[in-house]
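Researcher: Sequence of L1 transposable element RRM domain-containing protein follows. Predict its structure.
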Amino acid sequence: MTGRGKPNKQTASRGAANPNANAKEEEEVTATMLRDMMQSLKADICNSIEEAVKGLQTDIAAVKSELSTTTGALQQTINLQEERLAAVEDSATKSSDGLAEMEVTVAALKGEIRALQNKCEDLENRSRRNNLRIISIAEGVEGKTPTAFISNLLKDLFDLDGPPLIDRAHRLSQVKPKTGQAPRPFILRVHFFHVKEQILRLAREKGDLAYNDRAIHIFGDLTAGEAKRRAAFNDVRKILQNIAGARFGFRHPATFRITMPGGEERRFTDPEKAMDFVKSASSASPDSD
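Model: Prediction complete. Tokens:
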């Protein structure tokens, strides 16, 4: 009885130890399950990352391939444009060099043309040195012998000893004017230059000239260029006309010669310089106001 009623100490201690053992086993099982789950999750994550990386690598490779193709095309275009630009630059350089040569040539040709024009005008003026121009003589009064008519007219106008020798005389080759219009001028060539100069001097001295109660005028026959250059001295001539004892006139070509009362002689081709000289000389003259 006594032995049956008392519990065995070994059995009691084993029973007390079992709860701890069970708990440890459960922890180990739980830890194992967690490790398995972590390993599985890690494997899934690694697989996902690997697949994503492979996808990115594929995309990057495709982009690189596309970029390589595009870059190659762009490089070809750039190379072509560089070749064209080089050709344009070369052409521009050659054109610039050619243009510079042409500018030099044109400048030289302009100088030659200007010199030739001056020579031609000089020759034309020299060919007219013995010519006179008479304006305002009525149409038709010369009849069929204009040269003889003009020669006799000059004799009568200036009371010459005889008719001056005239090589030829004619009106300008223009359409005959209608009634009421101005008559065509006469152009005549005097055989001797000194006679032509004498006629011009007498015309200036006499002043008013008339034929058949009509005023006429006698001038030297000048080219348009020389007439324009001489006309530029008109203001100087007006001042000289009011200076007693001053003499002036033109030498061929349009060279203006001035002789002041004191005997000082100067020649000018520039009207402004001539004007400065006349003003200075007239202000220094004791006869000036």
